[in-house]
Specification:
Elements (H helix, E strand, L loop, with lengths): L13 E5 L2 H24 L68 H11 L16 E6 L4 H16 L3 E5 L7 H15 L2 E4 L5 H7 L6 E5 L4 H11 L15 H16 L7 E6 L10 E5 L3 H6 L5 E8 L11 H15 L1 E5 L6 H11 L2 E3 L5 H7 L2 E7 L4 H8 L6 E5 L14 H10 L5 E3 L6
Parallel strand pairs: 1-2, 1-4, 2-3, 4-5, 5-6, 6-7, 8-9, 8-11, 9-10, 11-12, 12-13
Helix pairs in contact: 1-2, 1-3, 5-7, 9-10, 11-12
Length: 456
């Protein structure tokens, strides 16, 4: 039996498409927030009677075109479902969270047993008998459009484990596993796409996602954070511009861009709300230009804080790496010099590598700076929250200057961001690069801003 044929249960009401660990993290944050709201509402208004033997927990994985990942057997151990902590982590009390949470048994004590079961089902994102329409986050299936990069694949596998433990289905698609893989992936997803009521996406710039958007009939579209790119997406949508990643903007469109232009234009139209379609942006990023009709919901990283930590905080400093060299924005030699100077000035001992940083670059950093290179198995927000983590986290302009203060709220950890000197930019960097990076730093909340280090 094929992996798809073996998938059981009713069709998914909400489909989430992710291509990176950060996107999957933010899908789980979105589902957690909406599940909390559902649970809170269930206490005020009892739902329809539940029945024994109603739909169970959606936990089975539907693998995609490539089947099992050969690297999966070598990945680190998963989260202990009994404690919700990673192996080797001590159990510690979790602080009270401002975000709504599923109701405790005591709070449900006054609710009749049948309604109580219905409330718990809704809190877990499952439909109860009598529900006429799916609530946000309900019947969620996460579709992983797997990349080829081994580091990204490993982190996605670990995040997929966490999604299953939260009761969500995960469907792994080898979307880039050969010339025929895109056709097989799109063909296999066409049916569920047409039946889905809600589409959640982590990267509206992705050509894969834009192509899938042309198939769906969903009335609800949700864009969750894909890092700083979310800021540019919202601004471009508000201005009616074509969707182009910030580090490529300003260059002449290539042949593939021109060929794909009709699909990209169609995706932009579908991401524009109207009387028949609702669009939500779920983000921890500052959004200044909000398109008419778009709902913006704040991501406060409540799921991350509830799931991990609080961390042990050490006296030293840690540094966060960036892929600005790999994307052609910052010169490699300048970056190496900047890391060396920043680490020396602040006494940093560890360097948390970005998943897209090249191994040769990391080997040079280790040899020439003395930093311990750490390649995280999960997004940095979860690694830092799990701990141990330095009292100061040093970063260049990136997503983490917005997300880490939220994930580490109340821990006493300080996030410090170092500006990018214009002299570090490459000759081929987008004309918008310096302004965009300065905006990332300038709009960050609860961070300490450092001047660009001197490389003299």
């Amino acid at each position: 039996m094929s992996p798809r044929a073996g998938q059981s249960g009713p069709p998914a009401r909400t489909l989430a498409f992710v291509e990176s660990p950060v996107q999957l993290l933010n899908v789980l944050e979105w589902a957690h927030l909406h599940a909390g709201r559902i649970a809170a509402g269930a206490q005020e208004a009892p739902g329809a009677p539940d029945a024994e033997g109603a739909q169970g927990a959606p936990g089975a994985e539907g693998a995609g075109t490539g089947g099992a990942d050969p690297a999966a057997a070598a990945r680190p151990g998963g989260v202990d479902p009994a404690t919700a902590l990673l192996p080797g982590q001590a159990a510690v009390p979790v602080p009270a969270l401002p975000a709504p949470a599923p109701p405790a048994p005591a709070a449900l004590g006054a609710v009749p047993p049948q309604s109580r079961r219905a409330a718990v089902r809704r809190a877990l994102g499952r439909r109860a008998p009598g529900d006429r329409a799916p609530a946000a986050g309900a019947d969620l299936t996460v579709v992983v459009l797997a990349p080829t990069d081994p580091m990204t694949r490993g982190q996605l596998r670990r995040m997929a484990d966490l999604a299953r433990e939260d009761g969500h289905r995960v469907r792994w698609e080898e979307a880039r596993g050969g010339a025929s893989a895109p056709f097989q992936t799109i063909g296999g997803l066409a049916g569920v796409l047409r039946r889905a009521d809600r589409i959640v996406m982590g990267d509206p710039f992705s050509r894969y996602v834009q192509l899938l958007l042309t198939i769906t009939r969903a009335k609800d579209l949700v864009v969750v954070d894909d890092g700083t790119a979310t800021m540019e997406f919202v601004a471009q949508l508000a201005r009616g511009e074509r969707l182009v990643r910030w580090h490529r903007k300003g260059g002449r469109p290539g042949a593939r861009d021109l060929l794909f232009a009709p699909v990209s234009s169609s995706a932009r139209r579908r991401l524009t709300p109207n009387a028949r379609r609702r669009v939500e942006v779920f983000s921890s990023m500052p959004v200044s230009e909000i398109p008419d009709g778009v709902t913006v919901t704040a991501n406060g990283f409540a799921w991350t804080r509830a799931r991990f930590g609080p961390p042990t905080v050490t006296a030293g400093a840690d540094m966060v790496g960036t892929s600005l060299v790999e994307t052609g924005v910052v010169d490699g030699e300048r970056y190496l010099e900047a890391v060396r100077a920043l680490a020396k000035a602040h006494g940093a001992t560890r360097y948390f590598a970005h998943r897209r940083e090249h191994p040769d670059k990391l080997r040079r950093l280790a040899a020439e700076t003395g930093l311990e290179i750490v390649r995280p198995e999960l997004p940095l927000e979860l690694i830092a929250r799990r701990g141990p983590v330095g009292r100061t986290i040093l970063s260049f302009p990136s997503t983490v200057v917005h997300t880490l203060p939220l994930a580490l709220a109340g821990t006493g950890v300080r996030v410090a961001v170092c500006d990018i000197d214009p002299a570090w930019l490459t000759d081929t960097a987008s004309p918008r690069a310096q302004g965009f990076l300065s905006g990332v730093t300038g709009t960050a909340r609860d961070v300490h801003r450092l001047a660009a280090v001197s490389l003299a």
